[in-house]
């Protein structure tokens, strides 16, 4: 079963004095492109977190973040008095020089400025990190489940598109023999328009056979059927089908393009255009497959 690279997971945990929220989202990417935001209190675990995400998600543009909300009545933050006074004096002086009013609520402005509040970060103990680690895994579980659901939708789409291409390929067959006769008739009529021109009918038949062989698309049809079959088989692989499916669609496109170049028939070329359209829709969605 295939998985999409698109997904989202979120999990929370309550500790005695804080609430931990873990959010992780992923989009499609050729390899793992990981962005991690971890509070300083858990910074020493960043390598372990990155390793866990890489092992479980394999590929994708992944954004990971841990948020801490203090639920304790006691605050661990302190006002940095020197910084606050420096900001106050700078704003007051700028106000006088520029002739603009000072803030109506000084503290509302000052407390939002960088470094005015100091936070006393305490190192997380083993028990706390165990809770955080479990929360990370829950968020990853959610994201993987999301990926599987998206993958099922993609799989249904691929099966439908492959079936459409198979049907269109079968629609070409009635025109093949008709095309040969049309080509032969067109050449004979062109020769007959030339006055006092005679030709060797045996040589003409030999040339026609050679020309018709150049237009033959049986090999392309056989190869395209094999590629379509292999594509469906690959959907059932355990993991990492995205790149392989991409390679198969390239081969499918090669056979469809060759069929179009050999068509030499309006209806056949119109069917080939429809096949290309179905294949392009497959290619677009294959980019999302893990």
Short description:
Helices cover 61% and strands 14% of the residues. It contains eight helices and six strands, in the order E-E-E-H-E-E-H-H-E-H-H-H-H-H. Strand 3, helix 1 and strand 4 form a beta-alpha-beta unit.
Can you give a write-up of this model?
- With 290 residues, this protein is an alpha+beta fold.
- It folds into 3 domains: 7-73 and 124-147, Ribosomal Protein S5, domain 2, CATH 3.30.230; 77-117, no CATH class; 149-286, no CATH class.
- 61% of the residues lie in helices and 14% in strands.
- It is built from 8 helices and 6 strands, in the order βββαββααβααααα.
- It has helices at residues 46-57, 81-98, 106-110, 126-192, 201-215, 218-234, 241-263, 266-286; strands spanning 7-14, 18-27, 32-37, 60-70, 77-79, 117-119.
- The strands form 2 sheets. Strands 1-2-4-3 form a 4-stranded mixed beta sheet. Strands 5-6 form a two-stranded antiparallel sheet.
- Strand 3 (32-37), helix 1 and strand 4 (60-70) form a beta-alpha-beta unit.
- Helix 1 (46-57) packs parallel to helix 4 (126-192), helix 4 packs antiparallel against helix 6 (218-234) and helix 4 runs antiparallel to helix 8 (266-286).
- The radius of gyration is 34 Å and the shape is elongated.
- The protein starts with 6 loop residues before the first strand and ends with a helix.
- Residues 2-155 form the Endoribonuclease YicC-like N-terminal domain.
- Keywords: Endonuclease, Hydrolase, Nuclease.
- Residues 173-289 form the Endoribonuclease YicC-like C-terminal domain.
- GO terms for molecular function: hydrolase activity; RNA endonuclease activity.
- It holds the Pfam family YicC-like_C.
């Amino acid at each position: 079963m295939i998985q999409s690279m698109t997904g989202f997971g979120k999990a929370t945990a309550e500790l005695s004095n804080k609430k931990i929220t873990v959010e992780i989202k992923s989009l499609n990417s050729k390899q793992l492109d990981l962005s991690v935001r971890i509070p300083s209190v858990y910074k020493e675990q960043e390598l372990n977190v990155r390793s866990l995400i890489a092992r479980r998600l394999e590929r994708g543009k992944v954004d990971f973040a841990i948020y801490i909300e203090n639920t304790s009545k006691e605050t661990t933050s302190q006002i940095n008095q020197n910084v606050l006074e420096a900001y106050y004096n700078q704003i007051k002086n700028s106000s006088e020089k520029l002739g603009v009013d000072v803030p109506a609520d000084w503290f509302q402005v000052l407390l939002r400025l960088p470094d005015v509040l100091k936070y006393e970060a305490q190192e997380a103990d083993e028990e706390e990190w165990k809770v955080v680690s479990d929360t990370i895994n829950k968020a990853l579980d959610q994201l993987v489940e999301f990926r599987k659901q998206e993958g099922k939708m993609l799989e249904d789409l691929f099966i439908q598109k492959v079936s459409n291409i198979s049907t269109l390929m079968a629609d070409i067959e009635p025109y093949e023999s008709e095309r040969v006769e049309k080509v032969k008739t067109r050449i004979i009529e062109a020769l007959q328009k030339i006055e006092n021109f005679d030709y060797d009918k045996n040589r003409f038949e030999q040339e026609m056979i050679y020309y018709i062989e150049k237009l033959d698309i049986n090999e392309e049809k056989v190869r395209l059927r094999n590629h379509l079959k292999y594509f469906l088989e690959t959907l059932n692989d355990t993991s990492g089908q995205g790149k392989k499916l991409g390679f198969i669609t390239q081969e499918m496109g090669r056979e469809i393009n060759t069929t179009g170049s050999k068509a030499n028939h309006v209806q056949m070329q119109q069917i080939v255009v429809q096949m290309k359209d179905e294949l392009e829709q497959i290619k677009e969605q294959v980019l999302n497959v893990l």
